[in-house]
Every structure is written in structure tokens, then in C-alpha cells.
Amino acid sequence: MFNYQRLLSNQKVLQYAILAVIILVILPLSMDIFRLNLIGKYLSFAFVALGLVLAWGYGGILSLGQGIFFGVGGYGMAMFLKLEASSPANTAIQSTPGIPDFMDWNQITELPWFWEPFHHLSFTIAAILIVPAIFAYIIGVAMFKRRVGGVYFAIITQAIASILTILIIGQQGYTGGVNGITDLRTLLGWDIRTDTAKYVFYYLNAGLLFLCLFISAFILKSKFGRLLVAMREREDRVRFSGYDVSNFKIFIFCLAAVFSAIGGAMFTLQVGFMSPSLIGVVPSIEMIIFCAVGGRLSILGAVYGCLLVNLAKTNLSESFPTLWLFAMGSLFIAIVMKFPEGLAGIIEHNIKPAIKGYLADKKNKAKGEIQAPLETEKRI
Amino acid sequence: MFSEYTANELTSIFVMQGFSGLILFSVFLLMALGLAIIFGQMGIINMAHGEFMILGAYVTYLTSELFLNYFPSLFSGYFFIAMALAFVACALLGAFIEWIMIRHLYNRPLDTLLATWGLSLIMQQAFRSIFGAREVGVTLPDWLMGSYPLNDTIDLPINGFFVMGLTTVITVGVYVLTQKTRFGKQTRAVVQNREMAGAVGINTERVDRFTYALGCGIAGIAGAAFTMIGSTGPTSGQQYIVDTFLVVVFGGVSSLLGTIAAAFSISQVQSIMEFFLTGSTAKVLTLLAVVFILMLRPQGLFALKVRR
To answer: Which of A35, A194, A182 is nearest to A105 (CA)?
Structure first.
């Protein structure tokens, strides 16, 4: 028994090591900085997908509004960078120097109060981590304490994502409107548009991603992780056993929100802008497909899912723009109907047994015995 | 915000905005009816509902072009044929989708949501490939054009009256169908207890397919009505889907009266506020209010008590 567990954890270590080698060594060595920057962008979505694995795959909470939290993180970082980029010296030609350019275009003459604290990096980082958690907490308390779940939760989070988008687009003077917050230049006086900065952010992003992966793995391994699975399968029984189900749900939803916000902030740093097109209904659902392709029960799968779907999207929409939506739609349907556990499920249930069967076959042949081929396990 | 208007002007504003709110209400209700049937009766989240509506709109567009080019003499009546065609096209596609996709996903409501979202992406791209990305508009026959002047300051568009009449007819039809006919009884039986309904000899699979097809068909009619008040593009459906789901959930699932009340209140509030505030603020406030109420009262305005 001990040996078996030991083997399993060795296998896990190997899986993490492979991902680390791919992200930290192979990808940076094999492509130029432009492509690597794109990969960094995809990996910032992996934070959201990771949160979705926890909330949806393990907690059974399908949030169609993870874009909200991605947006909160992204906009928080963008506001800080924008304020730095619009120092009075840089914006001397405006009618009101010292405020972001889009405010000036919208005849706003004073920095709004909620922009003020974003002059400080420490506040910005705190806000990126805390605001989404509070937001998620409020939504979570309102919904889970009343035992609203499943479909209703999905629809309401989707509505909130839609509200936030309309609000941001409508309040152009305060938020930059449809274009979002663009033209970000420096972080504490350090130019973020250089190649060096892009490498630094790529590795910072990868480091944070692995940190979040380890946190998730730790949580799933703990008693709390077992409870999450139990809740997803038979919520009533967990409740009857004396646990307060809603608190667990609220916690996991808040954690997913914070992960998404970190991803959003890293997105802004790497791509150099933030816009409502990344937080609305459509991107929020796209983030779910990243998670579903990788496998909703696999935290490493979320990262692979993000990379694969986004690479496919970039390549397909570059060469066959009309095909992309067909491919994406079919992917949704195929994953849901045939492979609910995504790539990780295919590897776990089809490829691994096949390899094992193949190895066993070889062994038997070496012994000179003839045996019926091992049937791979069929999953519904 | 009222001070700069005279009493007379205020009345006119309220009447006209109220009337445009009624038109919005009709379209909301038509869309929500189909969705309420599918979601309320079957528990399926049909994210492709907006695309079914747009399919109906495109069918109407094609019919109008056909009549304009080949039977100009019959043009004034084309709309009724277009509506029937839209209904049939959407219902057939709906039945096909149910057979190929949805029936494998009962008991997995969250997965139907994702699968139908995939379907909606495919349909959108199909519309774009066939009809082009540009929005198309239909030519209305003369008797639907123009407006009816109530007095000097109030003008009411005639197609608005038509949309409202249509909505009334369809709503009554749905009510009769679900409450008074054999099919409606079977549907409700399946909703309330699938195993028992099957045990007493109802073909639940057939009921499911008819229900889904009916919901999609009504979406097609909604699309036909939609062409009278707006132009049709490949992604027009997506703009309405969030609102429509809110209407259904706000009204209380599987309650026809609730759906009507929810569609009415949301559209009226939004339409009247739109005049005084900007369109986006009005929409944000309306949706926020709905979400807030739903958080306090998750079962919606009118909840049907069902033993699960």
C-alpha cells in the first residue's frame, strides 16, 4: 500500500516536472519573444481555468462570470499603469494634465475618487487580491446561503458579467469605454514594452501559475478537497453529516475569483492593455472551454487546455477565419458529449490502459504465452 | 429630472416610452415563452435560443425577398407565410438537435448549457457564411408602415400594434396548449414526475422532442416579429439571450404568468428609464435590480411548487 501511494506521488511529481520543463525551458527556447508573449497571454487565462477546475470540476459550481474577476484584476493593474503613464509631464498637451487621456477626451477635469488610491502599487496589488474576493464573497453568500446553485447560479453570474460589461462600456469617461485602458508604458519607471520586460513577466507569470497550482493541489489533497467532491456528488448527505456546505462553496468560489484576478493582472502586464472584450459573457464562457478541454478534474489539464485551445484559436483564425467558430462550437459539443473529463480523462481512461495493455502484451509475448488483448476500459 | 418638462410633455413621454416598452415587452415575451417552455418544462438551458430566433428572422427575410421578386401582388400578406415558415424551420431544426444532441444530456443541465453554447457558435458562423456579416432588414408591406397619431405630440407606430397582437395570440395559444390539451397535460406530467409519467404510458421521449421543437418554433416566430423592429445580423441573437434568461428566471420557472409579469416589468422599467438616463445606465440599473431581487427571492416572482 505504501509503495503504491509512493508511486502515485512520484508520477505526480513527474507530471509537474514535465509541465515545468515545457513552460520554463522548451517554450522560451523554441520561439521568439513575440510568440512567447502570446504564450504568456494564454497562460494568464490558465489562472481562470485553474479556478474553474476547483469551483466547477470539484465544487460543482459553474460560474459563467469568471471574466468579472479576470476583469477586476486586469483593470486594477491597468489603472495603476495608466496613472503612471499619464503623469503631468507626459500629458502636458491635454486640457487637464495629469489625468488619463480618455478622461480628458470625455471632458472630465478631475481624477475620480476611486482612481486616486491606484497611484500606489501596494494598494493596487492588495486591491487585485482583495476586491475580487469580497465581490465573490457577496455573490457567494447571497446565493449559496439560500441554496441557490447549479443552473441559477450560472445564469445570475452570467447576468452580472453582462452588467459589468455594459457598465464599463457606458461609463466611457471613467473606464475608457469599448477601447478599454490602453497605452500602458512603465511599471515604477521601468519600461514594460521591452523584450527584457516581456521575459521577466513571462517567468513571473509562470512562477505565479505554479504557486497557484501547488495551492490547488494542496487543497485538493486535504480533507477539504474530499469534502468538495462529496458535496458535488451528494450535497444533501454532506449537509446531513453536519457540515455547512455553503461556507465551503463560498470559499472555493472566492479562491477561484482571486486566481482569476491574478491572471487578469498578469494579462495586463504582458499584453499592455485591458478592455471589456475580455470580461463579458462570451470570454467568460470561452474560459470554461479551456478548462473543459484540459479536463475539468485535472489542475494540470487546465494549463494544457488553455495552451492548446488558444494556440488552435490563434492559428486557425489566422489562416481560416471562418472555420474557427465551427471548430470551437464542435469542440464544445464533442467535449461535453463524448469526453466530459477532457484530455486528462482521455489520457487517464484510454491511453494509460492502452499503454499498460501494450506493455503487458509484450511481457506475455516474451514469455511465449498467447493471451487475448486487454480491452481498454470504456467510459460513458 | 422631471422639472424641465411640462406636465403635457411628461404624459407624452410616458405614453410613447410606455408604448415602446410594450413593443420590447412583446419581443421579450415571445423569446421568453419558447425559453420558458424548454427551460421550465425540460430543465434544458438552451443557449442557442437566440440563434433559433435569428434563424426565424432570416427565414422571414428570405420569404420577403422571394415575394418581392416573384409574387409582388401577394406581397402584403407575405408576413403570415413567413411566420409559418419560420416556425416550421425552427421546429424541425429543434427536433433534429434534440435527437442528435439534447436527449443524451438530460439530467446534466450544466452540460446542456455548454453544448448548446457550442451549437450557437456553429449557427452564428453558419449565418455569417450564408448571409454575410452585414445586417439585413426586411421590407415591410405598406399596411405595416407608418404610425398612428394619437394627438399632436404622440405618434404610435403601427407595426408595434401588430407585434403586440401577435404576442397576445401566441401567448394565449401557448397557454391553451400547455393547460388545456392532451399534449400539455403529458408535458406537465413529464415535468412533475418523469418516471411516473413513463409508467402510466406516456412516451416521455416523444414529449421531450415535441416540447423542444415547440420552444424552438416559438423562437422562430419571435425572430419573425423581431425583423419588424430591428435589422438582423449573425450575432443579434446573442445580445438578447442574457436578458431573456433573466426574464424566465425572474418570473419563476415554469410559470407562464410569472414570465409575462417579468417580461412586462423589466421592459417597462428599462424603456421608461431610457428616456431620462442613457441607454446603458438604464439597462445596468434594470438588470442590477433584477439580480438583486433574484438574490433575495431565488425562486422568482411566481414559483410553482413541485415535489422533486
So the answer is: A182
User: CB distance B278–A170 less than 8 Å?
Assistant: yes
Question: Which are the contacts of A32, defined by CB distance < 8 A and separation ≥ 6?
Answer: none
d(CA A158, CA A275): 18
- Residue found by looking up cell 453558419 in the block: B126
Q: Is pTM, for the whole model, over 0.80?
A: yes
Is residue B93 a contact partner of residue B48, using CB atoms and an 8 Å limit? no
Closest chain A residue by Cα to residue B125: A325
Rg of the Cα atoms in chain B: 20
- Model confidence pLDDT, tens digit, residues A130-146: 999 999 999 898 888 88
Residues of A in contact with B110 (CB under 8 A): 62, 150-151, 154
Select from B104, B115, B283 the Cβ nearest to the Cβ of A166. Answer: B283
- With contacts defined as CB-CB under 8 Å, which chain B residues touch A331? 118
Indicate yes or no: CB of A154 within 8 angstroms of CB of B110: yes
Confidence of residue A376 (pLDDT cuts 50, 70, 90): very low
Number of Cβ within a 10 Å radius of residue B44: 26
- Average pLDDT for B277-305: 78
In this structure, what are the phi and psi dihedrals at residue A145, rounded to the nearest 5 degrees?
A: -65, -25
ipTM above 0.90, yes or no: no
